[in-house]
């Protein structure tokens, strides 16, 4: 039996993936992007595609149960599509998926945030550092402070670098 | 037989308008015909009107949400160019001469009528209103 100095074949791609997935100066969360094509299509028709790991399952459930009143817009869907989206988001929510723990830090289990910008983690990351002032939002072309992609250009891929 | 008559009657009614729009295909005619057939259940219905559709599309409606009083609130008045959602995302141009896939899928068309009529008018649109809006948009 010869011992090879090389890494086992299966390890190399994993290492490479880690290397390329990890931006050097970032300590923002790295979340799974939405993988279901129906969820991706429907949930990005009007706004950026938010990774499911940005809210707990209870938030997604409340949201998908009232799509006719979706942040001031009617986002109604047929029952089958709505159920598919509800199931996907709940199954991949911040309290279900790996890597989302940070997002829920400081959030009381009884609170059901309607928006990502209501999370204590989000506030700590943005408002205390003055990153979402009206002037900054205007400069970045963000319509509202939940428009992550205006600053975090890889937000839909689940990457939220701190220095974006 | 009855169904065929309704379908072909609807197509004949709009044909003069659509003759100029080379991009219109059978899928779009079928989507339109569904609304025309539904509108025909109202007595005295004489078919869709491009002019009524244009007026409806550009009108400022009461009853909807303050941010979106008209179709043009998001789609803009230039229907060969892109619109923008309230969240800032671009909307494909409405003109099928620019986006040939427009109005080819009945479920998609109905999904957006349902949502947008609710936001703009505060109620569902009637089949006649949808037929008018569609026949106007199909001619673009």
Descriptive overview:
- The complex is a heterodimer of chains A (about 160) and B (about 140).
- Chain A is mostly helical and about 160 residues long.
- Chain A has helices at about 10-20, 35-45, 55-65, 80-90, 120-125, 135-140.
- Chain B is mainly α and about 140 residues long.
- In chain B, helix 1 (about 1-20) crosses helix 2.
- Residues about 1-10 of chain B have low confidence and may be disordered.
- The chains are: A mainly alpha (about 160), B mainly alpha (about 140).
- The interface of A and B includes residues 44 and 147 of A.
N- and C-termini, Cα separation of chain A: 50 Å
Strand element count of chain A: 0
Instruction: Estimate the global geometry of chain A from the Cα principal axes.
Output: globular
Oligomeric state of shown chains:
heterodimer
Q: How many angstroms does the end-to-end distance of chain B come to?
A: 32 Å
Treating each run of at least 4 consecutive H or I residues as one helix, how many helices of chain B? 6
Helix coverage percent of residues of chain A? 25-40%
Beta-strand percent range of chain A: under 5%
Q: Biggest chain pair contact, residues each?
A: A-B, 18 and 14 residues
Summary?
The complex is a heterodimer of chains A (about 160) and B (about 140). Helix content of chain A is about 30%, strand content about 0%.
Task: Please describe the structure with a list of short key phrases separated by commas or semicolons.
heterodimer; A: 164 residues; mainly alpha; 6 helices; B: 140 residues; two-stranded antiparallel sheet; 2 strands; globular; disordered N terminus
What layout of secondary structure does this protein have?
The complex is a heterodimer of chains A (164) and B (140).
Chain A: H1 11-21, H2 37-43, H3 57-64, H4 79-91, H5 120-126, H6 134-140
Helix pairs in contact in A: 2-4, 3-4
Chain B: H1 2-18, H2 26-39, H3 50-58, H4 72-75, E1 83-84, E2 90-91, H5 106-121, H6 127-138
Antiparallel strand pairs in B: 1-2
Helix pairs in contact in B: 1-2, 2-6, 3-6
